[in-house]
Structure formats: C-alpha cells, structure tokens
Design goal:
heterodimer; A: 308 residues; mainly alpha; MetI-like fold; 17 helices; flat; B: 358 residues; two-stranded antiparallel ribbon; transport (chain B); transmembrane helix (chain B); transmembrane (chain B)
C-alpha cells in the first residue's frame, strides 16, 4: 500500500535496494536461527533417547567390574576403582557352567542353521519351480503356521515331545527348533521367484538332473537370501530361552547360553556384580557379530519383519 | 489357433508353464517333489498342526500331563470367561497396546531423523538397535537390577531432584509396575521397528525431497506429504501387528517379574497353569481362545488394509485378476490341443511350439 504513495524525492533507488538487502538479511538470520534450533533439538533428542537406551547396559558394565566390597558398600552409580577387574567374569563363567553352555549353543546353532537352510531351500525350490497338486496347499499351511504363536502351542508340543522321548535331549531340542521356521522359507521362495526359470531350462537341456540344478546352479545364486535367513535364525536360536528351559531340564549338562544365567537365581539373594558379568558374557558374542555384520543384520531384520 | 501360439508362449514363461504330464522326466520330478517336501512338511505337521489339533481336543478335558483325561465339555471355556483373575489378565494387554503405539511413534521419529545424513548416525542406529539382540533372560536380569529400589533408575531420578521417598517401587507397586514392564519391552523392540521404518524411508525416491525443497516445503511438510504416504503400508501393518502382539504379550513379565504383583499377562498365566499347576485342559482352552482372537485380528487386518488403501488401487488388481482368468482359459485350450496330438508330450512349451511349427 505505502509503496504506491512514495514520492520520488523521498526514496531513491539505492535506498530501496538497501531496504531490500536488510530484509533479506533479516530473513536469513531468522532462517539460520530456526535451522540451528531444529538441528539442536534433533541432536538433543537423539542423544537423550540413546542415553536412556544405553543406561541399563552401561550400568551393567561398570557393576561387573566392582569387587564384592565395592558393590556392597558403595552407591550403585559409583564407578569401580579398577575397570579391568575380570574376577567377576571368571567367577560367573565358572558358576553358570558357561563353557558347557557355549559348546551346547554352538552345536545347536550349527545344526539348526545348517538343516533349516537345506530343507528350507529345498522346499522353496520345489514350491517355486514345480506346479503340482498340493503346492498351494503347502504354501497356505506354512502361512497359517506363521500366525500361530509358538508359546501357546507349547502345552501340546510338550506332550508330543514327551511321547517321542525328546525331552531332556539336545537332539530333540534341535529337531524341534528346525520345525518351526516359516520366515526363512518365505525369503527363499521370494528369492527363487526372482531367479529366471531359463537358467533351469538351459541346464536341463544340457542334461542336468533336478538335483544338480538345485545344488549346483540355484543354491550358489541364493547366497544373499541364505545369509539373511541365517542371521534371523541364528539370532533367534542363540537367544531362545523358553523352549530351551522347558525341554533341556538337565541344565548342568544340556543348558544353552541363553538359559545358563538361570544359575544365578538362588536363595542367597542377588549378587548383581556377578550377575552383570554373566549377562555381559552372554551378550558378547552377539555384540561382536553385530559389529561385523551390521549391514546384513539390518537387512535381515527388515526382510524378516515384512513377511510376518 | 496354432499360428498364435508361439507368440503367447514366448511372452509368458513361468513355473506354471512346465506341464505336468506322463513323460519319463516326470517320474523324476515327482520323486524330487516328494523328497524335498517330505521333511519340512513332516516337521510342520508334527510340531505345529498336530499340537494345534490336539490342543483343541485337550481343551474339552480335565487332564494333567500324566493320568487319564476326563471329558467335561465346555467347562474350561466357561471358566475362562467367568474366573475374574483370568479376565483381568486380558485387560493388561491394554498397557502393552499403549506401549506398542508409543514405540511405533518414537521409532517413526527416529527413523525420519536417522534415514538422512546425521553426524554419528551409524552409532545412534547401532546403539538403539542392539537391545534387540540380547536374550530374554539377560534382559530380565538387567531390568531387575535397573529397577531395584535405590539402584540405577532411582539414582538417576535422584540426580534430577526427585526424593527417593516419593518414588514408587517400580516392580512391586501395582500402580506403576506394568508401565515399568512395558518400558522394558519398548526398550527392546524400539530399534527393530526403527530399522524397519528406515528401510521403508530409504526406498522413497530421493529426488522427491529435492523437488519439495525447491517448492519451499519445510521439513514437517516433507514428512507429512512425502514420507508418511511413502511408508503408510508398513506403518499401518506395524500398528495392527502391535495390537496382536500386545494380546500375546509374554516376555517382559515372564523374565522380569514372573507375573507376580498383578503383572501376569494372559500368556504368563497360561504358562503357569500349564506347567506349574499342570491343568493342561484349562491352559489349552486359554490358548485356543487367544488363537481365535488373533485369527480375528489377522482377518480384521486384511479388511482394514484393503479399506485403507482402496484409493491406492489404480485398477492393477482388477487387471491382474482378469489376466489370470484369460491365462487360465488359454492354458485350458492349450491342454486340449496337446491332448489331441498325444504321444509327443512336450518338456517345455517352447519345445512343443517349435515342433508344432515344424
């Protein structure tokens, strides 16, 4: 409005220019302020949430380094005198029989991962490559099985395991763990369907048997999907505690890493410096693998969850 | 008819195209199908479907793991809906539902921030995700320690100016203990949900943000109009899954409080009834009831998703259905044609057509 009434002698062109520059500067100062505040809020929230998430873990780390005297007399939040006090780790390792637990977990992990990969890829190969009566039925059966929560079924599975004589046997536990893997089969089927069928046809013309096509041609191409499925299965098996606790009752001999920590629940009251050391020992393998395979783990988790 | 076949056959090559007929190779095919399907299907039947049907059967009996079962009809089901202690456990899932929604919201915020360039982004991502990789028993101990009177949480709150005498017992006070457990559950699964959302956000075309920025859209507008529509499928899916998940909430109360002081959810109670009290019949009935609820939720999920994304339907679904129908008719016609010249059964459709041409 006012610009229309300005007379030429009141405001020269240069004055106009200056005013405009000032207003631009004002806007840009405002803009930078806003940006700075937003960025501050962003980092503040990130640091705050990460602090909250790490606090329970970090408190375990410093508690694990405390001697009994320090733990009993000092405040929980007080830092230990010697950060490299590994006595608790050694004690926890011995008390919960962790050497045996690690061996058992290793056996279970290797067997289950190997077998689920083999039978999972075989089933996926057949389901994705052949049209046969029952194909859709099997697919549907696996889809519905994914909906049934495992813990609800344990009431009846326990009786079946009992009648098969598989309670209190590492092999029984391994076989049971193999049977409930639906997500990796999904991942394999999806991946197979992306591999061109002309590969099979070319090999077939060259006289390859179905078994050769599966084992020599398709399986090597399936590597990324296998890595994804192995990570998901590996994390699941290493951390599985409910069925392990139920079926591996002789914990001294058969316990896995996840349930070895039960050794710390006793009548004498919790000695948390020891327990924290035990907790850290059990999650150390997971931490190391996570640091190495970070990217694959993220991919695996994303792929697995979408199918659920 | 025969003249148009080659084109169609070359264009369409899928697993369905390998015909199932009486060739020598088909015996091998049948063999490999049986061989490769046998073990997984047997495992599925023994450890999933057999227990499922047995469980449905058990739910009508009064029985223990050992001893003869006694048929009592639907009394177990009546018990579930009339025993106040069992009904109360279902109400606890409301806590977990609220927690799951907070988790989704928080994960969405973190994912929107961390999907773009942030200083130390890899560290934040890793630190937030790592709890997902810790086993349940360890989590139980970590949080028992964390929530103990005068320990970690109380100390931090005291630093912030709270008086210890005014703070509740986090795991014993029935006013707060369920929230404490929900917090531990959010702690564990936040990172996983976040990684999921980051994956979805990363798959959005990056040039959209540039275009929006040129048009003067601020960050909030970009979030509202680009990110949110871009990830809505996975977002809705997660919200629905969190509802189903909260009905079957189990882990946090099982490992931290063992269901004491009014924290026992439906599954924790079921576990106790099945394995400590050995009331297999009642526990089975509880499992069946929850399975039915979950099935209904899964069905509702399908309906809700279909309804929510009805606008997104640009006719592809309809077109696909039509194409399938046409394809079926074409196959039928082809099979008829093959039957006529029985004898030289084809291995591939391609091969057959070449013969036909010749």
């Amino acid at each position: 409005m006012s610009s229309e009434t300005i007379t030429p002698d009141m405001q020269t062109n240069s004055q106009k220019g200056k005013a405009m520059e000032a207003s631009v500067e004002k806007v840009s100062v405002w803009y930078h302020m806003r940006r700075w505040v937003l960025s501050f809020l962003k980092y503040f929230s990130l640091v705050f949430i990460t602090f909250c998430v790490l606090l329970p873990l970090a408190s375990c780390v410093w508690t694990a380094a405390k001697t009994d005297a320090e733990y009993k007399t000092g405040n929980v939040m007080a830092m230990p005198h010697n950060w490299f006090n590994f006595q608790n780790y050694a004690d926890a390792f011995k008390l919960s029989n962790m050497a045996v637990a690690f061996r058992n977990s290793f056996i279970v992990l290797v067997c289950v991962c190997f077998m689920t990969t083999i039978i999972g890829t075989q089933l996926a190969y057949v389901l994705s490559r052949f049209q046969f009566p029952g194909n859709a039925f099997i697919r549907g059966a696996f889809t519905i099985a994914a909906l049934l929560p495992g813990i609800a079924m344990q009431v009846a599975v326990y009786k079946i395991m009992g009648s098969l004589g598989m309670i209190n046997s590492l092999w029984g536990y391994i076989i049971m763990s193999m049977g409930t893997d639906v997500i990796s089969i999904y991942i394999f089927i999806q991946y197979f369907e992306n591999l061109p069928i002309s590969l099979d046809e070319a090999a077939m013309i060259d006289g390859a048997s179905y078994f050769t096509i599966y084992g020599r041609i398709l399986l090597p191409l399936l590597k990324p999907a296998i890595v994804t499925a192995l990570i998901l299965k590996g994390v699941g098996i290493y951390n599985e505690y409910y069925a392990a606790n139920l079926y591996l009752q002789d914990k001294q001999k058969l316990g896995t890493v996840a349930i070895s920590l039960y050794a710390f629940t006793g009548p004498q009251g919790p000695k948390y410096n020891l327990i924290c050391a035990g907790v850290i020992v059990t999650l150390l393998p997971a931490l190391i693998l996570f640091l190495i395979f970070q990217k694959q783990i993220y991919n695996g988790v994303a792929a697995g969850a979408v199918k659920e | 008819m025969t003249t148009t076949q080659p084109n169609v056959a070359v264009a369409e090559r899928s697993a369905a195209d390998i015909p199932f007929n009486k060739h020598r190779r088909d015996w091998k095919k049948t063999g490999i199908i049986v061989l490769f399907c046998f073990l997984p299907v047997a495992l599925l039947v023994v450890f999933t479907y057999l227990p499922f049907f047995q469980m449905c059967g058990y739910s009508f009996y009064k029985m223990k793991y050992i001893g003869t079962p006694k048929y009592i009809g639907v009394k177990n089901y009546v018990d579930i809906f009339t025993r106040p202690d069992l009904l109360a456990t279902l109400k606890l899932s409301l806590y977990y539902m609220v927690g799951a929604l907070i988790q989704v919201a928080l994960a969405l915020y973190l994912a929107t921030v961390l999907a773009f360039k942030v200083k130390g982004g890899a560290f934040f991502k890793g630190a937030l995700f790592f709890p997902y990789l810790i086993n349940g028993i360890a989590i139980g101990f970590i949080f028992k320690f964390f929530y103990t009177r005068g320990y970690v949480l109380d100390s931090v709150l005291q630093w912030c100016g709270f008086d210890l005498n005014n703070l509740p017992y986090w795991l014993r006070d029935q006013k707060v203990n369920n929230w404490s457990l929900v917090a531990s559950s959010v702690w564990r699964y936040l990172g996983q949900t976040m990684i999921l959302f980051i994956g979805a956000i990363m798959s959005i075309d990056g040039s959209l943000y540039e275009a929006a920025e040129i048009d003067g859209a601020n960050k909030w507008q970009q979030f509202k109009h680009i990110i949110l529509p871009g990830i809505q499928t996975i977002l809705v899916l997660n919200i629905i899954l969190s509802i189903t998940g909260s009905l079957s909430a189990f882990e946090a109360p099982y490992v931290i409080t063992s269901g004491a002081n009014g924290t026992g959810t439906f599954f924790v109670q079921m576990d106790k009834i099945a394995h400590s009290d050995q009331k297999v019949g009642l526990a089975s009935a509880m499992a069946v009831v929850l399975l039915i609820i979950i099935m209904i939720c899964a069905l509702l999920q399908k309906i809700v998703m279909g309804w929510l994304f009805r606008d997104a339907d640009d006719g592809t679904a309809k077109a696909r259905k039509h194409a399938q129908k046409v394809e079926k008719q074409r196959k039928k016609a082809l099979r008829q044609a093959n039957k006529v010249k029985a004898g030289n059964a084809p291995l591939f459709r391609n091969g057959a057509n070449k013969e036909a041409e010749a």
